[in-house]
Amino acid sequence: MPDLEPGQEIPELSVTPDRYLTVRYAGASGDFNPIHIDDDFARSVGLPGRILHGLWTMAQVARAATAVADGDPQALARLQVEFRGMGVPERELTVTGTVEDVADDLTHVVLQAEQEGNTIVPSARAELRTG
């Protein structure tokens, strides 16, 4: 595990969800809300088309956070995510973050996620066991 310092940027995570991701994620998660799997329905309720599941987006934030712990998902002790936007398939999602503090065996990271300038997660905090 690398030595981490407050203010240090974490590796940026960029991922482009393919056009079928929301259907696969619906099957995996059991969340078959039509805003995630039916373009016509999503448009009928004022959305631009199918939107990504919030929990999938949160998983990408967690993935970016655990990168500072050598990708170990067990290092993630706590994750708090604030959603303020929605993502769509086939557009690159980027998660960035900064080490907030390092104390004892815990590292706190603040993160954000955006898609083409649209902020989806303006604020997330991850607590990682890094000792």
How are the secondary structure elements laid out?
Blueprint: E1 13-15, H1 21-29, H2 34-37, H3 39-44, H4 54-66, E2 76-82, E3 93-103, E4 106-115, E5 118-129
Antiparallel strand pairs: 1-3, 2-5, 3-4, 4-5
What does this structure look like?
- The protein is an alpha+beta fold and 131 residues long.
- It has a 5-stranded antiparallel β-sheet with strand order 1-3-4-5-2, covered by helices on one side.
Largest sheet: 5 strands, antiparallel
User: How many angstroms separate the termini?
Assistant: 9 Å
Question: How many β-strands, per DSSP?
Answer: 5
Radius of gyration: 16 Å
Helix proportion range: 10-25%
Short description:
24% of the residues lie in helices and 33% in strands. It is α+β, with helices and mostly antiparallel strands and 131 residues long.
Entry keywords:
single chain; 131 residues; alpha+beta; five-stranded antiparallel sheet; 5 strands; elongated
